[in-house]
Specification:
Blueprint: H1 11-20, H2 24-36, H3 52-55, H4 58-67
Helix pairs in contact: 1-2
Length: about 70
């Protein structure tokens, strides 16, 4: 028997899902949740091409700035 409480879906998975569906407001809603929770997955934000659908939105750069990634 599988208990769904045994599984964890990273918040960034929802960011990518909504971004690829073109639902940017919802994608950024989940990105904020991830940011507030200090998810370690955020380290991939600048380096992964998966986040390209978000890059043209000014809110994305705001997150990059808030996280103080090295240049």
């Amino acid at each position: 028997i599988n208990d769904s409480s045994e599984y964890y879906t990273p918040r960034l998975a929802f960011v990518l899902l909504y971004a690829n569906l073109g639902q940017m407001d919802e994608a950024f809603n989940w990105l904020e949740k991830s940011y507030q929770a200090k998810d370690y997955w955020l380290a991939m934000l600048r380096s992964s091409k998966d986040f390209d659908p978000l890059c043209s939105d000014p809110r994305f750069q705001s997150y990059i700035d808030r996280m103080s990634f090295p240049e």
